[in-house]
Amino acid sequence: MAVVPASLSGQDVGSFAYLTIKDRIPQILTKVIDTLHRHKSEFFEKHGEEGVEAEKKAISLLSKLRNELQTDKPIIPLVEKFVDTDIWNQYLEYQQSLLNESDGKSRWFYSPWLFVECYMYRRIHEAIIQSPPIDYFDVFKESKEQNFCESQESVIALCTHLQQLIKTIEDLDENQLKDEFFKLLQISLWGNKCDLSLSGGESSSQKTDVLNSLEDLKPFILLNDMEHLWSLLSNCKKTRKSFCY
User: Fold this and answer.
1) How many domains does the chain have?
2) Which of helix, strand or coil describes residue 198?
3) Assign residue 6 a region: left if phi > 0, alpha if psi is -120 to 50, beta otherwise?
4) Are residues 187 and 111 in the same domain?
5) Residue 60 belongs to what domain range?
6) For 113-152, what is each residue's pLDDT tens digit?
7) Residue 233: what are its φ and ψ, rounded to 5°?
8) What is the model's pTM?
């Protein structure tokens, strides 16, 4: 049986994982802190001094988190009791059990980067829910809405294409179906370009019709198994039909 490769982590200098932990995550945290600070007057208007103190507390917790990351401190358990707190802490214990470190503690640059990034978002959530009465505040709401509005032209073009496809799909032959399937796969793939986490919170809206960009983007696909996937699905469809008969 093939051995499962080691998870990517920040100890691989120059890798995506390393740059994620060194640059991208701190940038996201900085933007979150800035967002809270910019809403200080709103918190005061809604909650008075209590809202201002809550904003200060949330920023303090997030600044502490950023410092833990940048100085490669041990990853600590969650403290705020929430529906998923125990699950997170159990998984942290599991990660620690896999380490060869002398102190047996998971650290930011030595733990799997995907776990570390997800944990960072969970710690942001914890900082907010520990700061009532602003524990309802969505620190990413503005950027999500901005990117969605800026992407409307592309969204409309894609929806129009899908509506037309639904109307005509029964009349498409095998090659046409395959072509449309490949288009949808590529749209799904390149949709990741709009992920705000990948851009470190910077605007990443889709301002052009992605359907018209697919051919130009093909050379940037590192591993393309679309033909193999289509073959598997086609065979499954044929097998299912034979069983029905």
Assistant:
1) 2
2) coil
3) beta
4) no
5) 16-130
6) 999 999 999 999 999 999 999 999 999 999 889 888 888 8
7) -65, -40
8) 0.81
